[in-house]
Amino acid sequence: MAEYNKPTTLQEVEQNFGQIKPDMNATMAYNESSRCLFCFDAPCVQACPTGIDIPLFIRQIYTDNVTGSAKTIYDSNYFGNICGKVCPTEVLCEGACVYNHQDAEPIEIGRLQSFATKAAIKDNKQLFTPAADNGKKVAIVGAGPAGIACACELRLLGYTVHIWEAKAHASGLTIYGVAPYKITNQEALDEVAYLQKQFGFEIHYNKKVEADEHFQMLKADYDAVFLGVGLGDTRSLGLDGENLENCIGATEFIEEFKMDPLGTHTGNRVVVIGGGNTAMDAASESARMGAEQVYLAYRRSKESMGAYEFEYDLAKGVGVKGLFNASPVAVLGTDKVEGMRFIRTEVQDGKLVSIEGSEFDIACDMVIKATGQEKQAAFVKKFGAIDTDNKGRIVVNESFQTTEPRVFAAGDAVNGGAEVVNATAEAKKAAQGIHQWLSKA
Amino acid sequence: MPDLSANLAGIKSPNPFWLASAPPTNSGYQVMKAFDAGWGGAVWKTLGVPVVNVSSRYGSVNYKGNRMIGLNNIELITDRPLADNLREIEEVKKYFPNHAVIASLMVDTREEWHQIVKDVQNAGADGIELNFGCPHGMCERGMGSAVGQNPQALQTITSWVMEVAKIPVIVKLTPNITDITEPARGAVAGGADAISLINTIQSIVGIDLDTLSPYPIVDGQSSNGGYCGPAVKPIALNMLKNCALDPQVTIPISGIGGIETWKDAVEHMLLGASNVQVCTAAMHYGFGIVREMKSGLENFMREKGFNKLDDFIGKSVEKVKTWENLNLKYKVVASIEEDKCIGCQLCYTACEDGAHQAIGLSGTEENRVPHIIEDNCVGCNLCSLVCPVEDCITMVRMDDGTEHKTWKERLIEGSAPTTFNDQRGGGVGHYVPEPKEALKKRK
C-alpha cells in the first residue's frame, strides 16, 4: 500500500510535499531564539561553511532587531533563506549545537535563519549598497548558487557583472534539483530577485554559452570570467536496456518534476539506483507522487551509503524500502522498463565482489539512476587552458583561480558536487580572488 | 550610518557602551580585550588599598529557562597593588588612545584621595569615578554606600577630589537610599562633573534548602551582597528618571543597571543617560555581547532617523509625570482577537482573581475563547500582559481624546472625593459580584 495517493492537482502535490522546515511565526522565533546560549567560539559557527555569526543573528532576533539579524546572515552567506531551508543543518550547525550533548533539542538554526531573511525579503530591506563603478567587468557563466554569490560580492566591490544562464531560472539546483519539501521554487526565486534588486547584476536567461563567438566575446570584453557551471547530465552505467523508456537519470527526473510535477511521468513500481542524497530525493519524490512501491537499490551495504542518515530516514518515512548489496546488471523490458536485474554483492578482502549465480529480478515500471553526474571538463576547456583533475573537476588555487589566469571557478564544478552552502562560500572567496588578481594587474 | 560616538561630561568614547567597574575590568588584559571586541570605554575595577576577598563570591537568580536574570556578589574592590593597575592603565591608553578609561576610586582620608587622584591622572586616565555605591563589605568600613547614603559626606569627599582633579569626575550613586536625588544634589554641590547610577542593590538571592545556608555560601555562612543583572533595570530606570527630572541635578548622567541588550541601553538613554555601563551581561556572555548592542542601536537609530545619540537622549523624560498629572479621562478597554486565542484562559483567571471580573467564558467545552465584559473592564492591562500570544489581547482606546481632567485639577475644582463614603469615588456604580457568588465558581 502506498503511503500517498497519486496527486491529480497542484494543490494535492503541495500537500504531499509539505515543507519539512516550515516557516516560524514571531512567537516561535522569539521562544526558540531565547534558548540560544550565545556560546563562545560557537561550534555552530565552526560547522557552517560560510561561518555565519549564528549566536549573534539569533540574539538579534531575540532583541527585535530582525533587520540586523538578516544583515548578519547575508554578510556571510548571500543565500540566507535558501540555505536556512536546504542546508543539511542536522550535520552542520544544528548537529554541532551544544544542546546535543545534553540530549536536549538543538536550536533550530535553519528555521531561525529563514525567519530573519524572509522578513528582510518580504520588506525588501536594502541591506547592501554596491560600491561605485570601478570600471571593470566580470562575466559569470551559470546563475546557480556559486554564480549569484560571486556576482553579489563583486558588485559590492564595484564591478559590473553580467551572468549567462542556460536555463530559464536562476538559483541552479536550488530550483532544479532540491527536493520540493525543502523549499518551494517561489522562495528560491524570491531570494534571487531580492539580491538582484540590491546588487544590480544582469542575468541573461536561456543563453547557453556554446557558440565560438560567445566564448570569444566573454574573453575579449571582460576583465575576468567566473565559471559556476555545476555538473552535467547523469553518467551512463553502460547496462543493457539503459535506453528503454522510463529509465531516466535522477537529476533529469527531478528537474522535469520540479518544473512540471503533474506533467512528469512517475512510476508505480520504482527502482532507484544509488546510495547518495540524490537517490534519497528521487526515491522520496516517487513515493510522494503515489508510487505503490519504491526500492532504493545500492550495490554496497547500508552503512557505506553516502547519503546523510536523516535523508535515508526521510525516505524510509514515506515508505521507501532499502535494498542493499544489490548491484545493477541490466534493465529489463522490450520498449519500456519492465524490471531490473541485480546481482548480490559482498565484500571479500576489502573488495566488493559479485556473488556468482545470485542474480535476481525486481519487477518495476521505472528505473531512476542516481549514480553520479558527468563533469563539464570538455565545456570548461573552451575557456582556455583550464586543467581538470582525474575526476574531471576544475583545478583551482586558493583564490579559486584556474590554470587560465583570467578564469576563476567555484561550486560543484570544482568540488565535484556538494551543498548549496559550499558553493556560496567558495564563490564569495572566488570574488575576492578575482578582486585581488585584478587589483594587482 | 548613524554616529554612535558618545560624550559624557567631556569624556569621549567611540560608542556609548562602557564596561562598569567590576570583575570584567580587573586588569589591563581584560580591558584591552574588551576594547578589541568593540566596547567604547571601561571603568576600571575600583582602586584603593588592596583588599582580601572571600572564596565563593556570586549568587544567581534563575527564572524558568533563563539563568542569571539577577546576580549578586560579595566581592570587594581591587585586591591588586595600585602600581600594577596604574602601569596597565597607561599601557591600555597607549594602545587605545580614543577609548575611554575611567579610574574608579575608593579610599578613606583626604590625603589618600588626593594621592590616588593624582596617580590615576598621571597614568593617563580619561576620567575618575568615585565609588560611593558598593553596598557590601566596604560599607562596613565606612566607605562605598556608607558615603552614598550620607549626602553631606558625599559632598565633602567629592569636593576633596575636585581640589586636585584635572579630568572629569563622575560620582557613582547607591540605590540603597530612599531618595536618590539627595546624594545626586550632593554630587553637584561637591563640584562633580557627572553622576552614574545605579550601583548594586543590597540583596540575598536565595537559600540552599539542604544546608539552610544563604547564597553565596562561605563556609556555611553568607553575607548580603550587591544585586544586579536584567532584574534590576526597572529600579535603575526609575532612579535615573528621578535625577533627570530634578532641576537641581544639572550634570550629565551615566546609566547603569540591568543593561543586557541594545533595547535596555536605549531605554536608559531615553531617560537621560548620556552613555551606559554594563557588567552582568559581559560576565554572562563575554565581551562579544557588545556586537548585538552596537548593531541593535545602529538599526534603531537608522529606522528612527536619529543621526547621533543626542537626537534621542532624554526624549522620554518629558513623558514621565507625577501621577496627579495623568489624564483621568483616558480610557482603554481590552479586546481579544478570537482567531489568535489559543484557549489557555490565563486572562480569564487573572481578571477574575486579580482584577475586576471583566472577562467571561463561553460555558461550553468546545469554545475556550474568553470574551471581554466591556462594562466591567477598567483597562488595567493585566489580561494583555499575561496573554502568551503576541497581539492577541490589545487595549483599545475608547475615549475620543477631547476630554482631559487630572486628579490635581479635580482637587483644585473641588470634585475629588474627600469622605469615606464619598459617592464621587471611582468605583461607585462599578459592577462587583456578591461575595457568596465566589463559592459557585470553579477554582
Task: Explain the overall architecture.
The complex is a heterodimer of chains A (441) and B (443). The termini of chain A are far apart. In chain A, a hairpin with a 2-residue loop joins strand 10 (339-348) and strand 11 (351-354). The model of chain A has no long low-confidence stretch (mean pLDDT 95). Chain A is built from 18 helices and 14 strands. Chain A has three domains: 21-122, Fumarate Reductase Iron-sulfur Protein, Chain B, domain 2 (Orthogonal Bundle), CATH 1.10.1060; 137-232 and 375-440, FAD/NAD(P)-binding domain (3-Layer(bba) Sandwich), CATH 3.50.50.60; 247-369, FAD/NAD(P)-binding domain (3-Layer(bba) Sandwich), CATH 3.50.50.60. Chain A has 441 residues and is an alpha/beta fold. Chain B has 443 residues and is α/β, with parallel strands linked by helices. Chain B folds into two domains: 6-319, Aldolase class I (TIM Barrel), CATH 3.20.20; 323-440, Alpha-Beta Plaits (2-Layer Sandwich). Chain B has helices spanning 28-37, 82-95, 110-123, 145-148, 151-164, 181-190, 233-245, 262-270, 280-285, 290-304, 346-354, 382-386, 407-413; strands at residues 6-8, 11-13, 17-19, 41-43, 58-63, 66-73, 100-105, 127-131, 169-172, 194-197, 201-203, 225-228, 253-256, 273-278, 332-336, 359-360, 371-372, 393-397. In chain B, the strands form five sheets. Chain B has an eight-stranded parallel beta barrel with strand order 3-4-7-8-9-10-13-14, surrounded by eight helices. In chain B, strands 5-6-12-11 form a four-stranded antiparallel beta sheet, with no helix packed on it. In chain B, strands 1-2 form a two-stranded antiparallel ribbon. In chain B, helix 6 (181-190) links the parallel strand 9 and strand 10 (194-197). In chain B, helix 3 packs across helix 5 (151-164) and helix 5 (151-164) runs parallel beside helix 6. The longest helix of chain B is centred in the C-terminal third of the chain and has 15 residues, at 290-304. The model of chain B has no long low-confidence stretch (mean pLDDT 97). The interface between A and B is medium-sized, with 20 and 20 residues.
